[in-house]
Amino acid sequence: MSDSIEKELQKFELPTRTDFPWVTTTITVFGVVLSALHIWFNTLSTLPELWISATHFAGFAVICALWYPAHISLKQSKIALGIDVLIAMGAVACLLYIPYAEDALYERGVKFVTSDWVFAIIAILIVIELIRRTMGWFIPVLIVVCLSYVVLWGKWATGIFQFPGLSMETLLYRSFYSSEGMFGSISRISWTFVFMFILFGAFLVRSGVGDYIINVARAAAGKIIGGPGFIAVIGSGLMGSVSGSSVANTVSTGVISIPLMQKAGFPSRFAAGVEAAASTGGQLMPPVMGAGAFIMASYTQIPYVDIIAVSFIPALIYFLSVAFFVRIEAKRSGVQKITTSDESLLKVLISGWHNLIPLAVLVTLLVQGFTPTYAAGLSIISVVVASWFSKDHKMGPKAIIEALSQGAKNMATTAVLLVGIGLVINVISTTGIGNTFSLMIDGWANGDLFIMIVLIALASLVLGMGLPVTAAYIVLGTLSAPALYKLIAENQLLELMVSGQLPEQAKAIFMLAAPEKLELLNAPMALETAKEMVALVPADFMETLLEQSLGMEAVGLALLAAHLIIFWLSQDSNVTPPVCLTAFAAATIAKTPPMRTGLMAWKIAKGLYLVPLLIAYTGLVSWDVTSVITVGFFAIIGTYALIGAIEGYLEGPLNILTRLLLVVVGTLLVWHDIPMLVRVASCAVFVAVFIYSGRKFKLQQSQLSVL
């Protein structure tokens, strides 16, 4: 990588204090200690969760305060460093104060004394400032707006957003001393699942797994037409699963894949777009799906292993959609075969077989029912053991210390962010504004699932301009998941009523709600009639009706589907202008215009919109393996057809009529409730168009060569 590109890529990284050796040493030592503490917290510790959460916050606050200056211009300022040392000490003081003052606070009947006020306010100010340094102004402003809404201006709001308000004392207690604010459920997820998997990723990278992934991708795709593009798809997908950051993934793999794609003949803007789209999808790839998957498991109370199990086929559809763009562009641009690896795939796989041991251990433990935290801990040990079989990356004490330190550094910004987001979530739950927002978007959608998904997509795009993916998912999931889940489940209920297959136990609810219409349930009915009957059911009985009609398993899947849809839509901000850092990072490497590259990445990443629709309307998220495979297979073919229609190209150029035909074929293949015979016929039409376009193009080329 040239110095100029490296300098340009630095703008996507936070400025750090590298001019003070003692700071670097302190952070390294602190990182090792924090990592060791967290391993203890997640294995043997019996400390109260509030104390652990406070330690989690204080430890990473120290790293953020010392490592990230308040402004880039203050990197070398000793005065600024002195102030940051005081901030770090303030964070530690807040930690020490909690066990010291906790008993006395409850003995006073939760009545604040001066020190309670001081430490609670200091802690909130510190977390706001550190988030500003690492994430920008959006989240700090959001926190201030939320906190002031509770104690100040909520009572002046009108309509559904009016809130009578809480006292400042109550707000500070809930924010700092209770298990509902900074140190609530989001913080607990941060120091358990998220930290352990980020540490696992740091050990994987230190053991040379990143190099192995790139080598495997090169061997798998390097010798076919468009191979470098497929390397980007495979390598970035696998690496993204390990790194958890789409921008970091783009920077680490893009410096290899983008030049390779350019050398093969891909347009530079397209090469950058593919890298950005593939890197974004890395956080959707099981078995590690970033922090969002763990938060989803906490929200839905569905085991993490179940979430990654149902996420595999959707992730496959997404990556294949990117690969289809690569294939089409390779044929259109006349991309040449270039040998990127002289070794066969089998040889590369065998040569680095030890790198697969940690992932095998992780998946096995998760499937066997171990907690994700325990599985990650044992997998970290397996990384060290597996590295001893490597020639170049054996992990000794020094390498282990480096991995422990790097894991803490990688976690620092995420930890502070999640602690701060806890303040927002506390306000949402305290005020009931989440339910209000759900009712509002439910009213806007007017019972139409498609419109609701569009509204959530727009909201996620706007939030994603200022929030990282994880934070955007947490906020949007809290606000809109209840409404989306309700609508998905109600649509399934309506299907049962329309077909006349409503279970007998569910009819009892209607006996209470609409006894005069009970007879209608014994036979198929019109959709409008079914909607009218459901509308008569009191809100208090609706959850019971859904459980008795659909079953607990189907209700759980509907809830999971709602969260998966929001999680997928939250990724879109990575590649959608005007703010799309992943695409901008790829543009920097490819030396292409950032905004135009963002538009290209947005086009290539269209699977981020298609898959949520499939989740909402089909059996893609289900325990019925046959149904999932069937839906997935036709969705993959349909996606290829739709991409061919968008691009106007398959194996050769397509005219307008053929493109329209592919639109129809693609829609029939991806839409729900289409008869199997129609789908099979649509597949046959697509195959025919695919072969025809290739033969027609070859004929035209041969005629041109004769001339």
Question: What ranges have pLDDT less than 50 throughout 5 or more consecutive residues?
Answer: none
Number of helices: 31
Number of strands: 0
Note the gap between the termini. 44 Å
What would you call the structural class? mainly alpha
Shape, please? globular
Largest sheet properties? none
Instruction: Give the rounded overall mean pLDDT.
Output: 86
Topology record:
Blueprint: H1 3-9, H2 21-41, H3 49-67, H4 78-107, H5 114-135, H6 138-153, H7 168-177, H8 185-206, H9 209-221, H10 227-243, H11 246-264, H12 268-281, H13 291-300, H14 304-333, H15 345-351, H16 356-367, H17 372-387, H18 397-431, H19 433-445, H20 449-464, H21 469-499, H22 504-513, H23 527-535, H24 539-550, H25 552-570, H26 581-590, H27 594-604, H28 607-617, H29 625-647, H30 656-670, H31 676-706
Describe the 3D structure.
This protein is mostly helical and 707 residues long. The protein folds into four domains: 3-184, no CATH class; 188-408, no CATH class; 432-574, no CATH class; 624-707. The protein has helices spanning 3-9, 21-41, 49-67, 78-107, 114-135, 138-153, 168-177, 185-206, 209-221, 227-243, 246-264, 268-281, 291-300, 304-333, 345-351, 356-367, 372-387, 397-431, 433-445, 449-464, 469-499, 504-513, 527-535, 539-550, 552-570, 581-590, 594-604, 607-617, 625-647, 656-670, 676-706.
Descriptive keywords:
4 domains, 31 helices, 707 residues, mainly alpha
